Amino acid sequence: MAATPAENTLITSKFSYRPLDKSDGIRLIYLLPALDAEAEVRCELIHTTLSNCTDIYEHYTALSYVWGDPIYAKTIWLDETAILVTHNLFSALRDLRSDSRPLRIWADAICINQQDDDEKLRQISMMGKIYSLADHTVIYLNFLNPQEAAKLDGCMSSNLDDWLSSNVDKSQFSADIAELILSHTWFRRVWVFQELVLSKDPRVQIGRHRFPWIALYRIVQSHRQPFTTGLRPLAASEGSRLHSEMHKAHQEHQKQERMRMKPGYLIPPQLLVHIQRVRE
To answer: Is the pTM of this model over 0.85?
Structure first.
């Protein structure tokens, strides 16, 4: 989970949760489409089960993000009720939203009743399965600094197709851009390791630009040797090291999944210890 228990979703007495009545029950956000990117975010909360989500019709996307400061709250509509969510979650839902069809999203702050401690414990214990069963996991990186956001938007607006091409030399892209992406708080949160590693198809989203995790990995790798960002090589940066360890963990888990390991498999304790040491 990408937030500490002390953080507040801001969804309080205004919204009444219907209890989950199945042992593997979860809620999903039914995110309604909008032609106008700046239109109000409207969604519904639906109940399903993880066993149902193994069916081809019950697909969903899991969201991995940093909750952010609840001081910067924004309004969305949930089942016709106006609720407050953090700016990061608001931005993620707005930018994920389709202009033509509804999407099914799992996001912890809304899909778990944060006021019910018993439910939180049960849902946290299911977190591995929630992320491993999702069709995709979107890692949403929200840059609140206007200059940083504009720099990233400008780069990806003109270069995203080349980012995704396997035939283009990735080293042509500015190492500063890679360093800026890797500086995001998401890469320094312990919670996100399981969210990434267990995901079948992780994708990174910045604003409305979305691309596969492997594309970011290739960009970072292209700058690990002779290229620099300011006064130090990108390879020596904390963000680069953490990203590399996360990628290795994800690849290792996917390899084991291909070897038909059980679906609920969690990251080996020794790997978590190794990753934690890298962070220190």
So the answer is: no
